[in-house]
Design goal:
Elements lengths: L4 H25 L6 H7 L2 H18 L2 H18 L4 H5 L10 E8 L7 H11 L3 E5 L3 H6 L3 H4 L2 E5 L7 E5 L5 E5 L8 E8 L2 E9 L6 H19 L4 E7 L7 H10 L2 E2 L22 E5 L3 E8 L10 E9 L12
Parallel strand pairs: 1-2, 7-8
Antiparallel strand pairs: 1-12, 2-4, 3-4, 5-6, 6-7, 8-10, 9-10, 11-12
Helix pairs in contact: 1-2, 1-3, 1-4, 3-4, 9-10
């Protein structure tokens, strides 16, 4: 197929625009700890990396070696951060059927403005997990999820008319349970402990503030700091689940992982996006399952579209101890 001069000019300009845009996004991402807006660019590092791989092939084919070298150079920070999440997509081991020795957990931000109650209820009835964490738990959602009181008799939470209500429903009895407010931000989070075989698991179910302004971003980071302190006081094996409103590509996520000694359990099954539920391909993973290395999480993946702006996060935890934890747990002084 022979392209016209106008078509060649169009693709030439398009490729140059893409080249400049991806480099700009990559550079701005490096300033994430200096400017709150710059952190928003870090969430798309995987997309930058994929586009840079495409540009390398185009420049290699067209003999644009200088542009190819520049693309590779600016791709390196993205590859360092986002690249590891591509490996399990092909090599990860997925647990399929539920075993009697496993515990299924679903964490779902239902969206407090969402009135698609039937879809969420149908999904929860079909999946029937052992533990359910509902974020943005409103009076309307309390009424529509009333059926969980029979199937999951152990429950606690707080109803709110705003996005900061949260509830936990469980088939398993709690050894401990309480609601917590991270960093005095007037938000609801949950801490609970339950027995999983021969060990006890302490779960922090959280919904952190979205970084939609400098103040909100700073308060979200304070919530992370407070959560680090609470995790450091734990005497159990620990799991953090919920909507953290940041991706694994943010430096604040990396710092949180480093300070707590937790591992990103998402890597068991590879890269799974949870927000937003949209036809436009700008999906990012802001709902997380983080755990101590000794906690044997065998599966983490996104569930189906249930009418919210988030996909559910489905987590499977084995009751057995992970015999190859990969690293020791951090010690807090």
């Amino acid at each position: 197929m022979v392209m016209s001069a106008n078509e060649r000019l169009f693709y030439h300009v398009l490729i140059r625009i893409l080249f400049v845009a991806v480099i700009a996004g990559s550079l701005i991402s490096l300033l994430a700890e200096q400017f709150w807006v710059a952190e928003l660019f870090t969430h798309f590092r995987l997309y930058y990396l994929l586009l840079q791989a495409l540009l390398v092939l185009i420049f290699l084919h067209t003999g644009r070696h200088t542009l190819m070298a520049l693309t590779i150079l600016f791709a390196m920070p993205n590859a360092w951060v986002a690249g590891p999440y591509l490996i399990p997509v092909y090599g990860g081991q997925r647990a399929t059927a539920k075993a009697a020795t496993s515990i299924d957990i679903v964490a779902l931000n239902v969206n407090y403005r969402n009135d698609g109650f039937a879809r969420v209820a149908g999904y929860l009835r079909e999946r029937d997990p052992d533990i359910i964490v509902i974020a943005e738990y409103t009076p309307a959602w309390r009424d529509e999820l009333e059926f969980l009181r029979k199937s999951h008799p152990y429950q606690f939470g707080e109803v709110r008319p705003d996005p900061w209500g949260l509830a936990v429903f469980s088939r398993l009895p709690f050894m401990e349970s309480e609601l917590i407010d991270l960093a005095d931000t007037d938000t609801v989070h949950a801490r609970f402990v339950f027995a999983a075989g021969m060990m006890s698991l302490e779960v922090f179910a959280v919904h952190l503030l979205p970084p939609k302004s400098a103040v909100w971003a700073r308060n979200r980071n304070l919530q992370l700091e407070n959560l680090v302190d609470q995790l450091g006081a734990s005497t159990h094996q620990r799991i953090v689940i919920g909507d953290l409103n940041l991706t694994p590509f943010s430096p604040y996520f990396s710092r949180f992982i480093e300070r707590t000694g937790l591992q990103d359990a998402r890597r068991v099954d590879g890269f799974h996006v949870t927000w937003p539920v949209s036809v436009f391909p700008v999906w990012i993973p802001i709902d997380h399952a983080l755990a101590d290395p000794e906690v044997n999480i065998t599966s983490v993946h996104a569930g189906p579209d249930v009418g919210s702006d988030h996909f559910p996060l489905e987590i499977r935890v084995s009751k057995g101890v992970n015999k190859q934890p990969g690293q020791v747990r951090a010690v807090f002084e």
